[in-house]
Specification:
This protein is an alpha/beta fold. The chain has a single domain, classed as Aldolase class I (TIM Barrel). The protein is 35% helix and 16% strand. Strands 7-8-9-6-5-4-3-2-1-10-11-12 form a twelve-stranded mixed β-sheet. A hairpin with a 4-residue loop joins strand 10 and strand 11. Helix 2 packs parallel to helix 3 and helix 3 packs parallel to helix 4. The structure holds S-adenosylmethionine and iron/sulfur cluster. The site of iron/sulfur cluster (SF4) has 13 residues, from helix 12.
Length: 353
């Protein structure tokens, strides 16, 4: 049996060897506008146990048959390859990722991939109570819980299910576990929940939590965003400034355009202009749909069929090339991408929000 010191030396040597492999193979994933892509968002499901009005109709959408969804080991292979090209951050999303029976396996096998620095999950929280400890033990770094209202009736109206208490309980559990970050995603809608902005901010008083106010985006088949519910980032900021006179802006992640913290509050809150899109110049995201297509922009429906390539028996090099090729073709911003698209996807669940 090897001595403890010897094991440590071997581990160190392996780490050096791995990092030099990352460097040697490490032609980063770039585009023509000087952006570098080091963040992969992976949809691991299209199905969901909620029916948020801006996302999915009650009857669901035309779900992809299971055999055409990427399997866990295919996803792990992809992660290992993109990590060699500089991808450092991963997010599992969907659909509802906790409905994927392999989610814990996916997390525990991605946190150990050399080069991957953090692994995150976006969930509606319904199954979180059941999985929270397993996710934490699997090494998940951060968790985003989507929650648009703190009011039971409104929760039912928006999600078409009466499950608010499950989400609130899950949030408390998540806050007690050693995740590096716990965030709440709030899609702000006029005359629906924009009056709750202050209530969400108050959650940051005693909790080490980030609340992210997000603009509604036009990604649902029924186009509810056309019904006057859109409430822009500028309006959200205005509302915040009306409620809190002493707002202090601090820096946040590249997509949290405005980030604030109130004096004496433990947590912080941010505003994300996901529709007005003045964040495109900072984009570092690659998206992989549950059915295995690479998308170089949320607003672009030009997709690159990775699943087919993989199932045709391609090499790791070919997978790397497809990612580089897909991202090189990324257009300057979301407006250009939208102009070139005809939106064949019916819901965010198919893109991976
Ligand atoms: N089911 C999980 C959840 O809800 O957290 C993960 C998938 S969901 C598609 C990811 C995020 O996309 C959620 O925060 C949701 O609120 C957001 N989303 C879905 N449709 C949207 C839309 N039309 N506009 C803005 N955000 C949207
Ligand atoms: Fe499900 Fe998330 Fe879409 Fe709501 S936003 S229907 S929870 S996938």
């Amino acid at each position: 049996m090897m001595k403890k010191e010897t094991v440590l030396v071997v581990k160190e040597k392996l780490a050096v060897a791995e990092s030099s492999l990352i460097e040697r193979d490490g032609h980063a994933i770039l585009d023509q506008f000087g952006r570098t892509f080091d963040y992969l968002r992976i949809a691991v499901n299209e199905k969901c146990n909620l029916r948020c009005i801006y996302c999915m109709p009650e009857e669901g959408v035309d779900f992809t048959p299971d055999e055409n969804l990427l399997k866990a080991d295919e996803i792990i292979r992809i992660i290992n390859i993109v990590a060699k090209f500089g991808v450092k951050k991963l997010r599992f999303t969907g659909g509802e990722p906790l409905l994927n029976k392999d989610i814990v396996y996916l997390i525990s096998n991605s946190v150990i991939v050399p080069g991957i620095e953090s692994v995150h999950l976006t969930t509606n929280g319904l199954l979180l109570e059941k999985y929270a400890v397993d996710l934490s033990e699997a090494g998940l770094h951060g968790i985003n819980i989507s929650l648009d209202t703190l009011n039971h009736q409104k929760f039912y109206e928006i999600t078409r299910r009466d499950k608010l208490d499950l989400v609130l309980d899950a949030l408390q559990i998540a806050l007690k576990l050693p995740f590096n970050s716990v965030k709440i995603n709030v899609v702000v809608m006029r005359n629906f929940n924009h009056t709750e902005i202050g209530d969400f901010v108050e959650l940051t008083k005693d909790n080490l939590l980030t609340v992210r106010f997000i603009e509604l985006m036009p990604f649902d088949a029924h186009q509810i965003w056309r019904t006057g519910k859109f409430f822009g980032a500028d309006k959200i900021v205005e509302e915040l400034k009306t409620i809190y006179l002493n707002l202090t802006q601090i820096s946040g992640s590249s997509t949290e355009h405005y980030v604030y913290q109130l004096p004496g509050y433990k947590g912080k809150f941010g505003v994300i202009p996901s529709f007005t899109r003045n964040i495109c110049q900072n984009c570092n995201r690659i998206r992989l749909t549950a059915d295995g297509k690479i998308r170089n922009c949320l607003y672009s429906d030009h997709e690159f069929n990775l699943r087919k390539l993989i199932r045709d028996g391609c090499s790791d090099e070919e997978i790397g090339k497809l990612f580089k090729n897909a991202m090189w073709q990324k257009l300057k911003d979301g407006y250009e991408a939208q102009n070139h698209s005809d939106h064949h996807r019916e819901s965010m669940t198919q893109i991976g929000g």
